[in-house]
Amino acid sequence: MQAQETQNEGLKRAYRMTVTVADIEARIDAEVKKIAPQVRMPGFRPGKVPANLVKKMHKDSLLQEALNSSIQEGVQKTITDNKLRPATQPHVHLDNDYAPGKDAVVDFHFEVLPAIPEVAIDGLELERLTVEAEGAEVDAAIARLAEGHKNFETAAKTYKAAKGDVVVIDFEGKVDGVPFEGGKGEGMSVELGSGQLIPGFEDQLEGVKANDSKVINVTFPEDYGAKELAGKAATFDIVVGEVKKPTESKADDSLAQAFGLDGIDKLKELMKAQVEQELNGLTRTYMKRQLLDQLAAAHDFEVPPSMVEAEFDQIWAQLEQEATREEDPEAARKEMEAEREDYRDIAVRRVRLGLLLSEIGQANGVEVSGQEMNMLVTQAAQQYRQEDRQRFVQYLQENPMAAAQLRAPLFEDKVVDFLFDKAKVSEKTVNRADLEAAIEAEPDAKPAKKAPAKKAAAKKEAAEEKPAKKAKEAAKDEGEKPAKKAPAKKAASKK
Questions:
Q1: 470 vs 356, 412, 438, 474, CA distance in Å?
Q2: DSSP string for 306-366
Q3: Which residues contact 287 (CB under 8 A, 6 or more apart)?
Q4: Which residues contact residue 375 at a Cβ distance below 8 angstroms, ignoring those fewer than 6 apart?
Q5: Burial call 21-36: b when 16+ CB within 10 Å, e when fewer
Q6: Residue 262: exposure state from Cβ atoms within 10 A (0-12, 13-18, ≥19)
Q7: Which of 313, 466, 477, 473 is nearest to 402 (CA)?
Q8: Would you say 120 and 298 are in contact if contact means Cβ atoms under 8 Å apart?
Q9: What is the pLDDT of residues 122-148, one digit of tens each?
Q10: How many helices (H) and strands (E) would you count in the chain?
Q11: Is-above-0.70 flag for pTM?
Q12: Residue 460: its pLDDT value, please?
């Protein structure tokens, strides 16, 4: 099989090759010879079924397998012979006129990785801004912890529930006056203002007292998880058991004991370690932003359009998801559309930086060890059910691209650490506000937009910081935010 080049423009390559009928038949015969001993057919002893019968019985699957293996082998040989580095999986097309017994004409095309000029990593200068994790920083973290760890006490029977209170209710939901499955519950605690229930439910509980009865009118969201209820108006007959008021949470030994610690001193030790980790993360973000800006400014080369498109699609999907959570989703989408080209530029930057980091890592022997990869696989497998974990591991073993996706973030971190060690780094101690302001004020970071586009602006900064991976090292997609559940389902889960 010899492929003829039909396109060589920029990073685009296309080829046409002919798989001869002789090659296809030879592969079929070889496969028949291999499987014949296992074929069973009435009237023949095991393993003695004639080859022509075996071929007739499995002709379609044998032909498909022979074609696939021939094409894959031919494509790979073309890539190897021409010393190409594909940026994407080749797109293969079998000629529409092909029929069994004829030569197969196959066209395939793909994009190649660019020839990256020598990467300049000498002369990097970075500033490390550090914040001491003690005193006010730790106290503030403990105060936030105390605020989030609420205790409640039963209020007087005449007390009217307000935002922040917990109302304990029995309820029964109905659509068109008919109770629906799973719509009944008892003793469910609802914190008013928490947003844990469908829109409008908690608001109508404000002002209720113990032993009150009330009918609540709501409409299930259009994207509600239970399709039979999505978008429908419903009523809930509720009876209030009791109302509970939050009590003041103090940063003392009792708070520490609530988390299984001996006392407040142990809690301070724990929170100091967590604050240190958080501040170190901010310091790294600042340094990494500087590093990527310097690399981007020093290197400019063509990048594969398909990689840019894939990266842009990922960025856009994240922004679409964020827009749905804005107070005015439509206004957020309009702002996004107005800045579409800005985000496409960011996609180009991310792809270019991803290729640069990959080149730097390969040129300097940076790699993810087998032990580290095993740890990544084990961690990723935990998100699956026990019975599915082995299949996930097998999937990674059989799909190098999927394995590379899992490996990519750690590889990138190791390359960044390598560059940190190569750079000339100056040290400066600042407070948290100064560090956060420095991150916001990086030269290439986009200015924050007025509401409701602040999230979109923040997304721009995050997108610029995160390099794209090569096609085989694409970043993982973010999952969608789950829909809020009906009160009844929360009661069921409690039971």
A1: 10, 11, 30, 6
A2: HHHHHHHHHHHHHHHHHHTTSSSHHHHHHHHHHTHHHHHHHHHHHHHHHHHHHHHHHHTT-
A3: 126, 127, 128, 420, 425
A4: none
A5: eebbeebbeebbeeeb
A6: exposed
A7: 473
A8: yes
A9: 889 999 999 988 778 888 888 888 877
A10: 15, 11
A11: no
A12: 58
Token pair, residue 107, equals 């066209």
Judge whether 235 and 216 are in contact, CB under 8 Å.
Answer: yes
- Is the pLDDT at 491 greater than 50? The verdict is no
417 closest CA partner among 280, 296, 303? 280
Distance CA 300, CA 362 (A): 19
Q: How confident is the model at residue 253 (pLDDT cuts 50, 70, 90)?
A: confident
Q: What is the pLDDT of residues 426-485, one digit of tens each?
A: 999 998 889 999 988 755 433 333 333 344 445 555 556 666 654 333 333 333 333 333
Q: Return the number of other C-beta atoms located less than 10 Å from residue 446's C-beta.
A: 17
Residue 461: count of CB within 10 angstroms of its CB = 20
Concatenate the DSSP letters of all residues of 121-141 into one string: -TT-EEEEEE---STHHHHHH
Amino acid at 70: S
282 φ, ψ (degrees, to nearest 5): -65, -40
Partners of 126 in beta bridges: 425
Tokens (6 digits) for 286: 């600042």
Model confidence pLDDT, tens digit, residues 355-380: 999 999 999 999 999 999 999 999 99
Compute how many other C-beta atoms are within 10 angstroms of the C-beta atom of residue 431. Answer: 13
